[in-house]
């Protein structure tokens, strides 16, 4: 399956890798910029189609290819890992945000990312 990525997706993914120091958040293996398909993936806990949390740092995890595949095949374990990592209150708030409709606004996201990139 080919995933269509918008410019905002690409910029968000770059920012997330820098922000989280090119490290898998599950196994803590470090990667380098440009490692490609077998490197780090931006994993969306609530799918990318969900605009309300598509660019939410709490909804996205930086995972190596293997850990991303593992959680895709074992979604119950992804839920348990995410819940433990975030804490119950933050997890419930993320779920609430994910179920709150939001209109797509890539221009606003790109402006937000420009500001974030200045901070990193």
Mean pLDDT, all residues: 91
Q: Which overall shape is indicated by the principal axes computed on the Cα atoms?
A: globular
Order of helices and strands: HEEHHHH
Number of strands: 2
Q: Please tell me how large the radius of gyration is.
A: 14 Å
Q: Order of strands side by side in the largest beta sheet?
A: 1-2
Tell me the distance between the termini.
Answer: 33 Å
Helix percentage? 40-55%
Low-confidence runs (pLDDT<50, min 5 residues)? none
Give the strand content.
5-15%
Report the major sheet: 2 strands, antiparallel
How many domain units? Answer: 1
Description:
This protein has 120 residues and is mainly alpha-helical. The chain has 5 helices and 2 strands, in the order H-E-E-H-H-H-H. The protein has helices at residues 7-19, 65-73, 75-86, 88-98, 106-119, and strands at 40-44, 60-64. Helix 2 (65-73) packs across helix 3.
Properties at a glance:
globular; mainly alpha; 8% strand; single chain; 2 strands; two-stranded antiparallel sheet; 49% helix; 120 residues
How would the blueprint of this fold be written?
Elements: H1 7-19, E1 40-44, E2 60-64, H2 65-73, H3 75-86, H4 88-98, H5 106-119
Antiparallel strand pairs: 1-2
Compact description:
The protein is mainly alpha-helical and 120 residues long.
């Amino acid at each position: 399956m080919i995933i269509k990525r918008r410019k905002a997706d690409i910029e968000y993914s770059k920012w997330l890798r820098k922000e989280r120091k090119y490290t898998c958040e599950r196994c803590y293996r470090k990667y380098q910029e440009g490692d490609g398909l077998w490197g780090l993936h931006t994993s969306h806990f609530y799918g990318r189609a969900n605009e309300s949390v598509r660019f939410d740092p709490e909804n996205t995890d930086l995972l190596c290819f293997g850990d991303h595949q593992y959680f895709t095949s074992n979604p119950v374990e992804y839920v348990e890992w995410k819940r433990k990592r975030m804490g119950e209150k933050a997890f419930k708030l993320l779920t609430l945000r994910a179920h709150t409709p939001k209109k797509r606004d890539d221009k606003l996201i790109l402006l937000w990312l420009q500001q974030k990139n200045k901070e990193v």
